[in-house]
Amino acid sequence: MSRSSAVGVGVVGAGVISDTYLENMTRFPDLRVLFVADIVPERARAQAERYGVPGYGSVEELLSHDEIEIVVNLTIPIAHAAVDHAAIAAGKSVWSEKPLALDRASAATLLETADAAGVRLACAPDTVLGAGIQSALRAIARGDIGEPLTATTMFHVPGPELWHPNPDFLYATGAGPLLDMGPYYVTTLVHALGPVARVSAVSSRSHLQRTIGSGPRQGETFPVEVPTHHAALISFESGQSAQSTFSFQNALPRAGMVEISGTEGTLVLPDPNTFDGDSVLWRFGEDAPTTLPLVGTTYGRGTGVVDLARSIRTGGPERASGAVAQHVLDTLLSIADSADRGSAVDVTTTVAQPTPLSESWDPAAPTL
Predict the structure, then answer these.
(1) Rounded CA gap, 174 and 304, in Å?
(2) Do the Cβ atoms of 216 and 116 come closer than 8 Å?
């Protein structure tokens, strides 16, 4: 495959999240979306036809496609590791939806296997690469709040069963608010403050069953397998700290809160589950806050696949890397462990803090 050509992509999983990925990836010139696979053939066909993708069928057919270099894994969490391993065994690089795996050993094995095979492994969320969070990260890097010291994050909602037609998996092992939404917030914190060293946490579960509120299964109940609220104190290797809560049991929705405070001020970041949004800077001694300009692109999910594709061609590092995802997973699992044990837990992995993207970085620009 020529290093000057666009990178071939195949998508595994044609569920709800595939719409935003396919809508964006089919208009990014550095990518060629060639195939959609799903365990339900008609669903794969429908998405391929809707977005003008030339091929559709089984995962086996996708993996045998010579022109596909990146497999975009959009399956449910319990299937992430198995699909990623199959893609790596076929010599493909992987972009995986979060979480990377459901346990530490599986995540470590994935990274080791990809490295041995000479392919890349990257992972959502790529919202951290959007103009919203990137503009905030550049502000922190240039010293707008002085030396960063502390952070506060909050995700509080009643629960996704109110809007999602098939919410069961969001309350199963590998999900819940911690592993479903936690990656957005902890990934942002790792980009802003560096790797985590230690966590302390408590958790609770408000109901043993939930009721689907919309769609063809409206009124159907399903079991809740995991805690639906976690409150954590996160300590970073650099000595900084963050207080974070992740909840599916709050009648008053308060989602998207990320604040980072330093010696000179506090920065209120946009929702880490979005690609845009303003950052607001509060500085000591000033009467009013300043809204910082949003600089960069806000295309949406699939942005990280472009970053991965360009990294494959240039040999540089991808920012939404498997190593970052492994460390974030380790942190989140440590929060769950701490809540179970009633004591603090050390986070044993580490990772290099990613650098912010340049202001001119654009996933829609043809570079390959």
Answers:
(1) 22
(2) no
The predicted structure's pLDDT at residue 77: 87
Domain 129-292 has CATH 3.30.360.10: yes
What single-letter amino acid sits at 78?
A: I
**What is the helix (H) or strand (E) element at residue 331, kind and residue range?**
helix 322-341
SS3 category, 56: strand
Task: Reply yes or no: is the peptide bond before residue 167 cis, omega within 30 of 0.
Answer: no
Locate 125 and state its tokens. Answer: 């969320």
Q: 171-204, pLDDT tens digit by residue?
A: 998 889 999 999 999 999 999 999 999 999 999 9
How far is it, in rounded angstroms, from Cα 37 to Cα 62? 7
Instruction: Write down the CATH number for the domain with range 7-127+301-321.
Output: 3.40.50.720
Q: What is the pTM of this model?
A: 0.94
- Ramachandran area for residue 169 (φ above 0: left; ψ -120 to 50: alpha; else beta): alpha
Q: Is 296 left (phi over 0), alpha (psi -120 to 50) or beta?
A: left
Omega of the bond leading into 125 within 30 degrees of 0 (cis) = yes
How far is residue 63's CA from residue 61's CA, in Å, rounded to a whole number? 6
SS3 255: strand
Q: Are 347 and 334 in contact (CB under 8 A)?
A: yes
What does the alpha-carbon distance between residue 316 and residue 199 come to, in Å, rounded to a whole number? 32
Residue type, 169: F
